[in-house]
Amino acid sequence: RGLLLQRAGLRGAPRWSASFLRKRGPWGGGAAAQADVAAELRPVLPVKVVLAISVLAVSCSGVLARTEHLRDVPALVVAGWRMALSAMALVAAAAWRRRGARARDRASEDAQEAKLRYFPAIASAGVLIALHFAFFYTALRLTSVLRATLLVCLVPIFVGLLGFISFPGSPASRPPARFWAGIALALIGVRFVVAGPGAQTAAAAGGRALLNVGDVFALMGAVAFAAYMRIGRVVRRHVPVRSYQLRVTAIAAGILMPAATLLHGGVGVALGALPWLALSSLLPQLVGQAGLDYVLFYLSPRVVSAAALMEPVCASLLAWAFLGEAVTRGQAVGSLIVLAAVALATSEG
């Protein structure tokens, strides 16, 4: 086993790679599959650096959505355009990469078989990420941004609970005690962060019943994203991140755009909003979401979702820097608590 990994240049690869090679052969496909697996088992940047960049990019989503050009655009329309523009960019990149001899190798029988084999799981992931955005952006219309963010931060808890359920290709596993301790500490820190100015806006404007509806939508969004990460962990062991992101994003766009058309009568936006929609597609989706999918190749969903608890912290700092929103002392303390909690939850021993 060690000689095989050494000859393949995979020293330091994830611990599951040896069993993967035994089941699927040295590479599990043709020359194209060999190149993709080799490239991902030898990351250019440290995995946790990629994770930090991804969380920062995802945190830009709320700030971009609150710019004056997108403020009046329905939330579901913003979500639909975000996924549609991302899908178009990924299709263009895939078309460019199909040029030359390597592209002909990608059309091999092995590559086509792999796409068909994992398509049901990829389709399920696309539906789940579409539901996540639909629920979360709907929650933003029914409750405050801070409260919706707090409830979506419960994703790690649902990921941990889903760990008790056995998925195809992913046996059940009990999260370690340090994971739950880190999550509990992080939720305390997140509560400090989201308890700043504006926390009572929705309650004052919408009343108790409306706030409860928003809570339900935010929680459903958290559950959908937790299931998405669990499925993504399985699929990403066999499917390169580019292929995975392309199909998941296209499926989600195919769901969100028609839904936005039905609910809002169309998806048209002002010309001035298009650059901001493109930026929302580039940073939170193509850099942030794709980065999270990439690190799922190396890290468990529990670790990735725990690190994503830094999103409200980063969002608060970005709002202070670009929107002039003040950061209170409680939010600063909460940020430090979240950082310590993430270090605890993502520690390996």
Automatic annotation (TrEMBL):
It holds the Pfam family EamA. Residues 51-194, 214-345 form the EamA domain. The chain crosses the membrane at residues 49-67, 73-96, 116-139, 145-167, 179-197, 209-229, 250-283, 303-323. InterPro entries: AA-Vitamin_Transporters, EamA_dom, EmrE-like. It is a multi-pass membrane protein. The keyword Transmembrane applies. It is found in: Membrane. GO terms for cellular component: membrane. Keywords: Membrane, Transmembrane, Transmembrane helix. Its main location: membrane. This is EamA domain-containing protein. The lineage of its organism: Eukaryota, Sar, Alveolata, Dinophyceae, Gonyaulacales.
